[in-house]
Amino acid sequence: GGGGGGSAGSGGSEASSSPALSFEDLQTQRVMANIRERQRTQSLNEAFTSLRKIIPTLPSDKLSKIQTLKLAARYIDFLCQVLQSDELDARGSSCNYVAHDRLSYAFSVWRMGGAWSLSTTSH
């Protein structure tokens, strides 16, 4: 019968592999791969830092990356609800800072499961 599909590549001789790279070439490839991976990681971390600055958070928040993404998705849902409710037009449009503070507060309340009506925060 047919042979079982074991690990064919392990234990093969160097001659059977594709054109043999010198030790220096392999080292260079490894170094370059490490540099690319570091740059990817740094870029990803910078993106998360930017995202964390945008999403209103609670003082108790110590968010992992997945928690940050989930919270960002909830914030987008929340903002869609706010836009649909048209309350911003009637209220804090005179001052962007007030509107942003209200949104942050309302999102925190909404996150905790309370009512998120913006009118309750007007002074």
Automatic annotation (TrEMBL):
PROSITE patterns: BHLH. InterPro entries: bHLH_dom, E-box_TF_Regulators, HLH_DNA-bd_sf, TWIST1_bHLH. GO terms for molecular function: DNA-binding transcription factor activity, RNA polymerase II-specific; protein dimerization activity; RNA polymerase II transcription regulatory region sequence-specific DNA binding. The keyword Membrane does not apply. Residues 1-22 are annotated as: Disordered. Transmembrane segments: none annotated. One of its GO terms (biological process) is cell differentiation. This is Twist1a.
